[in-house]
Design a protein that fits this description.
Residues 26-243 form the Endonuclease/exonuclease/phosphatase domain. This protein is α+β, with helices and mostly antiparallel strands and 255 residues long. Helices cover 23% and strands 31% of the residues. The strands form 2 sheets. Strands 1, 2, 3, 4, 5, 12 and 13 form a 7-stranded mixed beta sheet that branches. A 6-stranded mixed beta sheet has the order 6-7-8-9-11-10. α1 (37-47) links the parallel β2 (21-29) and β3.
């Protein structure tokens, strides 16, 4: 894993005089918290996110309590998702004002894992409103492509002009589902690369299968794996889970 620091610091969260908001968004597959949860919490805390888009949140025995403990250890609160969204979940800082949440279960293909979206509409300050969606798309190519279309439809139907989506796409950028998303949305890394690119695996990063996307009008200030970010240590990234996180700084316009 590369250990050199990012070329420039990622902007800190803040509200601008014009009502727009700079926010940090983290997307992270946490493998049902089966690894080192203390390391996981340290990585999340060091990234200082306003929103965390989680995949593979705990889904079984006492799953709500496990997710709440991770949120508390990271200085955050649970927003939505978990078992009720078949794995995706959302955490947020107290900076976010929550307008509404919805957990969405996608059509089940017999013999395949159930998938879903964790979604919310949040506000930062008085004027910056943002739709948020966390996803973990199918391992099966045709189902994954259909889910990509459902993701785009869900964002379009959230009733807000700006939105961010992220998660485990289970596909590289040259795949047709990833290309479908990138044709309609801004791919954070491709738009404003920062940090490192590859998200899988922590021991041997060689592919980018996790991503953060944003709708037109959201300004991407930097996006990538936070290798070398202050407080994020390689040993924690290796111990926390089997994916590397994606961290983005975005400017959400005043609606």
């Amino acid at each position: 894993m590369p250990t050199s620091p990012p070329a420039s610091p990622l902007p800190n969260s803040r509200t601008e005089p014009d009502g727009s908001a700079v926010i940090r968004v983290l997307s992270y597959n946490i493998r049902s918290m089966r690894d080192d949860t203390a390391a996981l919490a340290r990585v999340i805390s060091a990234c200082a996110p306003d929103l965390v888009l989680i995949q593979e949140a705990p889904r079984f025995f006492r799953w709500r309590k496990k997710l709440a403990r991770l949120a508390a250890a990271s200085g955050l609160v649970t927003l939505s998702g978990g078992a009720t969204a078949a794995g995706p979940a959302l955490l947020c800082s107290l900076r976010a004002t929550v307008e509404r949440t919805e957990d969405v279960l996608l059509p089940l293909t017999p013999g395949l894992h159930r998938r879903g979206f964790a979604t919310a509409v949040v506000r930062f300050g008085d004027a910056a409103r943002l739709g948020v969606l966390s996803c973990h798309l199918s391992l099966q190519q045709d189902e994954r492509y259909e889910q990509g279309g459902m993701l785009l439809d869900r964002l379009a139907g959230m009733g807000v002009p700006y939105a961010v989506a992220g998660g485990d796409i289970n596909e590289r950028p040259n795949g047709r589902t990833f290309r479908r998303l990138a044709a309609e949305l801004q791919d954070g890394w491709a738009t404003r690369p920062w940090g490192a690119e590859y998200t899988s695996t922590p021991a041997d990063p060689h592919q980018r299968i996790d991503a953060i996307f944003a709708t037109s009008g959201v300004e991407i200030l930097g996006c990538g794996v936070p290798v070398g970010h202050p407080g994020v240590h390689e040993r924690d990234l290796r111990a926390a889970t089997d994916h590397l996180p994606v961290l983005a700084a975005l400017r959400a316009p005043a609606a």
